[in-house]
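Protocol step 4 of 6.
Sequence for YtpI family protein (Halobacillus campisalis) entered exactly as in the expression construct, tag removed. Do not edit the line below.
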Amino acid sequence: MILFPVAILVSFVLYIYYKVMVLRTKDPLTQEYLNSKAKIFLGVFIFVFGINQYLFYETRLSLFIGILFLILGVFQFRLGFKASRHYKNEYAKLRQKSR
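Step 5 output, structure tokens:
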């Protein structure tokens, strides 16, 4: 099962990438958009980590902790996805104004 560790690593690297990009950007709208993208990858990281931990240990305690991680991951992903769509629309409005 090399799929889950690879997904964990990729999502964590992308989370760090977007967080660094937030620090490097001065525009508040771009910062919010990049932060929402980081939340998406944080949600994926937590979700996949929860699945991986249950498959690795297969105990009742790891099941409960895994379910908690799944719920937190879905919640984080959903918030990031909604914010990402919102700020993408804000970019479109900003481009229409500038033309």
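Step 6, annotate. Helices lie at 3-24, 28-57, 60-98.
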